[in-house]
Amino acid sequence: MEFTKGHGTGNDFVILPDPDGRLELTADLVAALCDRRRGIGADGVLRVVRAAKHPDAVDLAGDAEWFMDYWNSDGSFAEMCGNGARVFVRYLVSTGLAEVPGGGATLPIATRAGVVRAVVGDGTVAVQMRLPRVYDASAATLGPLTVPGAVVDCGNPHLVCALPAGLELAGLDLTRAPGFDPVVFPSGVNVEFTVPAEPVPGADLRVAMRVHERGSAETLSCGTGACAVAAVALRDAGRDGGVVAVELPGGRLTVTLDGTTCWLAGPAVLVATGEVDPTALRP
Ligand SMILES: N[C@@H](CCC[C@H](N)C(=O)O)C(=O)O
User: Which residues carry out catalysis (predicted)?
Assistant: First the structure.
């Protein structure tokens, strides 16, 4: 089975080319591929399949030729993956499966949360994401700590929790999943912990975060998480829009919100291509 490995600010993916939807991808195979000891190792799998060839995509693809069939490392599906979309686009363009659109046009990509649109730079890929919807309040627990947070829908569910003054991101133990209210999040949630950071040139606000992802544990970066964090930071600053620099353990993502659109930008890199024998995984 052919694969490529790629990442966006350290959020890493096994990319499986399957243009005609012939691959028998199962939750077990995804988990085995993502196993960091016995497999290739990744936070998730991106299957590259023509939208017309995947039952989940045919009705929602619009003008998108390609469907990002995203799976978390535990073999569960997610509706959306922001870094995954950026790496997926880097793969399409690098392999010639899609061309960088000219004349200011964007490249449409189908996802389970609808079509997103990408602009490709030299090292960076920017994707116009679904507008984050901040719509409720809840809380996360980490051991004895309860941290209130904002509930955000980015196509997938997020809980953005600002750490109380005096607590540092580095001091959090995210080796275990934070607790959350299953009534608010019946399908699980991605939990972001944030602290404000000093602004940088070109950004209106700057926030540092760590994330525990549903289905993938702690990751070095989360694109939809960065969008959720940016939306909450702008709301808390009393702003309708602006540019937010989001610092993650794996690097910086830039989120630009204007009340109607949300752009997520950052590096997207392919690092290796090879073949894997599925029968050799997890013996
Ligand atoms: N890392 C991703 C989000 C992946 C999906 C998430 N774990 C979920 O289950 O919703 C990103 O970059 O957005």
Answer: 81, 222
Q: What is the CATH number of domain 2-129+268-277?
A: 3.10.310.10
Question: What is the reported pLDDT for 283?
Answer: 67
pLDDT digits (tens, 9 = 90+) for 91-127: 999 999 999 888 889 999 999 999 999 999 989 999 9
Any ligand 1 atom below 6 A from CB of 215: yes
According to DSSP, residue 130 is labeled P
User: Position of tokens 């299953």?
Assistant: 182
Ligand-binding annotation for 250, yes or no, is no
Q: Can you give the residue ranges of every domain in the chain?
A: 2-129+268-277, 133-260
Matching fold, domains 2-129+268-277 and 133-260: yes
Give the total residue count for the chain. 283
This prediction's pTM? 0.97
- For ligand 1, atom 2, the nearest C-alpha belongs to 81
Q: Which residues lie across from 263 on neighbouring strands?
A: 128, 256
Residue 224 beta carbon below 6 angstroms from any ligand 1 atom: yes
**Residue nearest atom 4 of ligand 1, based on CA coordinates:** 81
| Residue owning tokens 């399957």 | 18
What's the mean per-residue pLDDT of the chain?
97
Cβ-contact 191, 225 below 8 angstroms: no
- Any ligand 1 atom below 6 A from CB of 153: no
- Ligand 1: centre distance to CA 10 (Å): 13
Which residue of 190, 214, 220 sits with most ligand 1 atoms within 8 Å of its CB, as the best mutation to test the pocket?
Answer: 190
Please answer whether residues 176 and 136 qualify as being in contact, where contact means their C-beta atoms are separated by less than 8 angstroms.
no
CATH 3.10.310.10 applies to domain 133-260:
yes
Lookup result for tokens 């940088």: 200
Q: Which residues are catalytic?
A: 81, 222
pLDDT, residue 103, reads: 87
ipTM for the complex shown: 0.99
